[in-house]
Each structure stands twice: as C-alpha cells, then as structure tokens.
C-alpha cells in the first residue's frame, strides 16, 4: 500500500465528525443537507469535512440539482475496509420542508 495514501486516509478518519459521516454513509448515499442536521454544524463546515474524506479517496459525490449526494467508494483499500467494518451504521435524517433533495 502507498504510505502517502495510508497517511491521508488515517488523518481523514481521525475526527469524530468524519466518523459520523462515514457511519451514515454505510447505509448508502446521503444528501449534504442531511449531514448538516446530523452534525449540527453549518453547511460550509460539513463540506470541509466531506472534502477531506473525498480527497482521501474514501467517498465520492454526485450532483442532483443544487445538492450534492455522497456515498462510499466501492473499492476501498484494505486499511479502510477494516476501519469501516468497525464503524456502526447510523441512520441519516431525511431532507424535509423547503429542502428538496
């Protein structure tokens, strides 16, 4: 394994908010608006957390209208597979009200 990638992935998962994001993503694709409600932080702060996971090759995104939806990358490194196996899935809330995802 590439040690540089290993370092990037370990740094990416060494944060409680990012662990919560991964726990939600274990159930499938999630809209960024749901993460705002789950973490109780601003959308720009959530985007920064997601960016770190994306740069580490752990998650990917797709745009749906004005919203971005995130999911785990299908092919994870052995290191990340082991870490993800230890994280309990967490159910994300659903977008409601004026938020249309």
From TrEMBL:
GO terms for molecular function: DNA binding; DNA-binding transcription factor activity. It comes from the Bacteria. SMART domains: HTH_ARSR. Keywords: DNA-binding, Transcription, Transcription regulation. InterPro entries: ArsR-like_HTH (IPR011991), HTH_ArsR_DNA-bd_dom (IPR001845), HTH_MetalResp_TranReg (IPR051081), WH-like_DNA-bd_sf (IPR036388), WH_DNA-bd_sf (IPR036390). Residues 1-91 form the HTH arsR-type domain. Gene3D superfamilies: Winged helix-like DNA-binding domain superfamily/Winged helix DNA-binding domain (1.10.10.10). It holds the Pfam family HTH_5. The keyword DNA-binding applies. NCBIfam families: HTH_metalloreg. This is ArsR family transcriptional regulator. It comes from Ureibacillus yapensis. The lineage of its organism: Bacteria, Bacillati, Bacillota, Bacilli, Bacillales.
């Amino acid at each position: 394994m590439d040690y540089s990638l290993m370092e990037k992935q370990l740094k990416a998962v060494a944060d409680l908010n990012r662990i919560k994001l991964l726990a939600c993503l274990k159930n499938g694709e999630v809209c960024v608006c749901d993460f705002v409600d789950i973490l109780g932080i601003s959308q720009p702060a959530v985007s920064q957390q997601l960016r770190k996971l994306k740069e580490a090759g752990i998650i990917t995104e797709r745009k749906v209208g004005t919203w971005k939806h995130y999911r785990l990358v299908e092919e994870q490194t052995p290191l990340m597979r082991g870490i993800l196996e230890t994280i309990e899935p967490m159910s994300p809330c659903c977008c409601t009200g004026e938020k249309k995802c």
